[in-house]
Structure formats: structure tokens, C-alpha cells
Amino acid sequence: MLVYILGVVLFALGICISVALHEAGHMIAAKSFGMKVRRYFVGFGPTVFSFRRGETEYGLKWLPFGGFCDIAGMTALDEVTDDERPRAMYRFKTWKRTVVMAAGSFTHFVLGFIVLYLLAVTMGLPNLFGTPEISQVSRCVQDARTNQQYTNPDCEPGAPAPARDGGIRQGDVIVSVNGQETPTYNDVVAEVQNLSGPTDFRVERGGEVVPLTVDVEKVTRPVSDPEDPEATKLVDIGSIGVTFTSRWEYGAAGAVGGTAAFTGDLVVETWHRLLELPERVPAVVEAIFGEERDPNTPISVVGASRIGGEAAQEGLWELFFFLLASLNFFVGIFNLLPLLPLDGGHIAVTWYERVRDWLRKLRGKAAAGPVDYTKLNAVTMVIIVVGGAFVLLTITADVVNPIRITE
């Protein structure tokens, strides 16, 4: 239990650090362009302590759930003093304001990359999408018939070795079986288990697709009995004798490229999951009222911290750090959505002003004034209410019916 609590605390601390660095990203970018940063605080609520260095006040507040960076003149409606006006953010070029607003999300991407890089050089990166890469080719395949030693790692004399004899090598990626594409190792297993005898395989090796013929062996294996989950029964299935890669391990240099590629795949997957959020909300509501919780439903910071605690308790630190990196990517992408009050909403308004004034210039008209944010208040409030309801919904589900990695 102590390890679980420690894991929850560490994961929550990691989230707090991520948010603090998000705001630090805004601050550093703003200062680098000469904008005036009034305050940079970690947390909300009453102030624990603060100090002033130069023109900026730095401090810590009692509630470590976020932070803020107060940049003078983030919009033209913000009140600024006479000495602040020349350095107000709204007076700077569009691209500079964009960089400042995007710097928070950029920080999440950098932090996520660093976490994954450290994971790559220590525990390895998980085979996230189930790529059917071969990590080991067995010297034989065995079955569970009473006259054979299924649990004995030593091969019987003359035992078949379909993959080895068919030319499959370590590092090959199986791209098709019997003419059927196999993008994941589950697809390979699903195809092979129904086959026997000579079968066409195609593997990717060194950037080329190599055709092979593998004599699939029918073996007897124990599987769970659907009528009695605690029992097993013997069935005949096709087997070729390979082990698929569950994670990729790297050296310090090779991990840079490996992490970059993995990060790209993870960002794309995160974007897809973000687009699926609306259609998964009903499942969250059903989970609150007693339905089995779908592990693919969205979770809150509470749920993520609980999973982090379980991962620590089970010694699954690779899952702990992978989840922390994934959360950073999600927050980074979500924050760039063109919706106020998100940073992406401010970026959208900034570029709307830029494009609008460019079009007016083409028509010989003077630039219009800054966008009146008061006219956007209604839309902003709707987004805040919807976002708040979503957060409350996920927190409730994570309390009453959480996603668990252990049972």
C-alpha cells in the first residue's frame, strides 16, 4: 500500500512539474522577445512565499494544481501602465506572440520526449502498436500432448522448427500471412492458428520485402475454456515458433532517433484519441452508473495518478513513465486547439487579426482594431462550462469505477 501511495504522489508531482514548466515556457519565450512578465507563480490560492528578481515576481502558492504566468498586455483589453505599454504583448509581431503562446505546449512535447528518451535507454520503449517484429526464432515448436514435455524448454529430437526452417530471422517483420496483411502480431497469431502446412509469408528485412514459405505445424495448446474461465482445455492450433518484440532497447545515441520516431507515432495516436473523445463520453456516464469501465475511455488526472500508483506497486515503472509522457503529449495537443481560453484559441485570434488586416490592406483599407474579447465571452464561457463538466465527469468515474491495471 505504501508503494501505491508513493506512486500516486510521484505521478501527481510529475503532473504539477509539467504544468509549472508549461508556464515557464511562456515566461522564457516572452522575456526573450522583450515582453514584460509581471508574475510567475506555481500553484493557486494563498501565497506560500514570493520574491522579486528584476521586474518579475516569482512565488509558490498553497494549491499545487497548476500555475500562471502574467504577461503584460496579453490582449488589447488588458490594463497596462504607461511604462508597460511599449512592451505589452499585443504590440509585438504576430509570429512572436504565436511563439509565446505555443511555448507552453512545446514544453510538454520536450518533457514527454525526455521522459521517453530516459525510458528508451533504461527499460526500453514498448511495442506500442504491436508491430510483428521477431525477437527470437525458436529451435522447435512443442505441444501439450501427454507424450511430450510442453513445459520443458529443451526440444525433443526431430521436433519441427517451422520459422527457423522457413528462413525467418530475428529482426524480421512479418507483413503478411497467406496473402493477408498482418499489421500487428495479434493479426499474425490470428492467421497462423487456423493454418497448417506450407504457407506463404512475407517479411520485411533490411527495407526489402522477402517472400518465404513456412511449413506451419499443428500443435496442441491449452487455452481458457469460455464456459469456465478458471479451467483450460486443449485445442489444435497452428504454430511457427517465434517470439515477438515487446519492447525496443537502445544505446544512448541510438535512443535519440528511436525516441523521435516513437514520439511521432505517439503524437499521431494521441491526436486520434482526442478526436474520439466525444463518442466515448457515453461510456464514461455508463461506468459511473455501474457498467464495466471501458479501458479506452478518457481519464482524469485522478485516474492517471491512480494508474501510476498501481504501476509503481506492481513494479511496472515503464508503464508509469510511458503514461506520464503520454499525458504530456495529450495536454500539449489539447492546449493548441483553437478554442478560448486555451492557448490555441489566443493563437487563432492573433492570426485572425493578421489575416483580416492583410485582406483589408489589399482592398486599400487601414488595419482594424484588435479583436474585442468581450464579444467572445459567451463562447468562452460555454467552452469553460463544457470543459468543466467533462473534467467533473471523468473524475467521478475515476473515483467510483476507476480503470485498473490489476484485479
Report on this model:
There is one protein chain. The protein is of the alpha+beta class and 407 residues long. It contains nine helices and eleven strands. The strands form four sheets. Strands 6-5-7-8-9 form a five-stranded antiparallel beta sheet. It has a two-stranded antiparallel ribbon with strand order 1-2. A two-stranded antiparallel ribbon has the order 3-11. Strand 8 (208-225) and strand 9 form a beta hairpin. Its main location: membrane.
How many beta-strand elements?
Answer: 11
Fraction of residues in β-strands: 15-25%
**Number of helical regions:** 9
Q: Any low-confidence stretches, pLDDT <50, length ≥5?
A: 146-150
Q: Biggest sheet, in brief? A: 5 strands, antiparallel
Please state how the strands of the largest beta sheet are arranged side by side. 6-5-7-8-9
Task: Estimate the global geometry from the Cα principal axes.
Answer: elongated
N-to-C span: 15 Å
Index terms:
about 400 residues; alpha+beta; 5-stranded antiparallel beta sheet; two-stranded antiparallel sheet; about 20% strand
